[in-house]
């Protein structure tokens, strides 16, 4: 059974400003460079921003020794996560997109959708995630672990976005 989670990042900036930040390769490059303090290798594999929207493909390697014991029972090597983020063309009402994450030889799936929309105080980027692990007996524990770590990641990315926009806009 898949588990779902919604996370909302609130920004004191207009939605268009958040969208414009994410539409630059530098935004993603600097975010991945910042994550290298936690993981030995983080990189932007692909980035496009055009009339159809934006897409970033990110790859992050986490050493097996950094994984919780329950994850080490399933993964026998370093965990390589490939994530694809996309947002459609900017829409002043609501800009929609999606994201996926996969782990090489991983025992499950992670997918979600995101919506960027204006609020009275700026804007919100809401991400709704669905995870599914296909390992009997420990699936629910791994799914919960993934969601908890994903919230931490989304918080860190929201803090990064606020700081990046404040410095670069």
Structure in a nutshell:
InterPro entries: DUF2505. This is DUF2505 family protein. This protein has helices at 15-22, 25-35, 69-74, 139-168, and strands spanning 3-11, 41-50, 53-62, 79-87, 95-103, 108-119, 122-133.
Notable characteristics:
globular, single chain, 169 residues, 42% strand, Alpha-D-Glucose-1,6-Bisphosphate, Chain A, domain 4
Question: How would you characterize this protein structure?
Answer:
- This is DUF2505 family protein.
- Pfam families: DUF2505 (PF10698).
- InterPro entries: DUF2505.
- This protein has 169 residues and is of the alpha+beta class.
- β5 and β6 form a beta hairpin.
- The model has no long low-confidence stretch (mean pLDDT 90).
- A 7-stranded antiparallel beta sheet has the order 1-7-6-5-4-3-2, covered by helices on one side.
- The protein has one domain: Alpha-D-Glucose-1,6-Bisphosphate, Chain A, domain 4 (2-Layer Sandwich), CATH 3.30.530.
- The protein is built from 4 helices and 7 strands, in the order βααββαββββα.
Please render the helix and strand layout as text:
Elements: E1 3-11, H1 15-22, H2 25-35, E2 41-50, E3 53-62, H3 69-74, E4 79-87, E5 95-103, E6 108-119, E7 122-133, H4 139-168
Antiparallel strand pairs: 1-7, 2-3, 3-4, 4-5, 5-6, 6-7
Helical content stands at 25-40%
Rounded to the nearest angstrom, the distance between the terminal CA atoms is: 43 Å
CATH superfamily: START domain
Q: Outline, from the CA principal axes?
A: globular
The value of Rg in angstroms is 16 Å
Number of helices: 4
SS-derived structural category: alpha+beta
Largest sheet: 7 strands, antiparallel
Question: Overall mean pLDDT score?
Answer: 90
As for the CATH topology, it is Alpha-D-Glucose-1,6-Bisphosphate, Chain A, domain 4
Low-confidence stretches: none
CATH class reads: Alpha Beta
Give the percentage of residues in beta strands.
Answer: 35-45%
Question: What is the number of domains?
Answer: 1
Helix/strand order, N-terminal first: EHHEEHEEEEH
Second-tier CATH architecture: 2-Layer Sandwich
Give the strand order of the largest sheet, numbering strands 1, 2, ... along the chain.
1-7-6-5-4-3-2
Pfam families: DUF2505 (PF10698)
Organism: Gordonia pseudamarae
Protein name: DUF2505 family protein
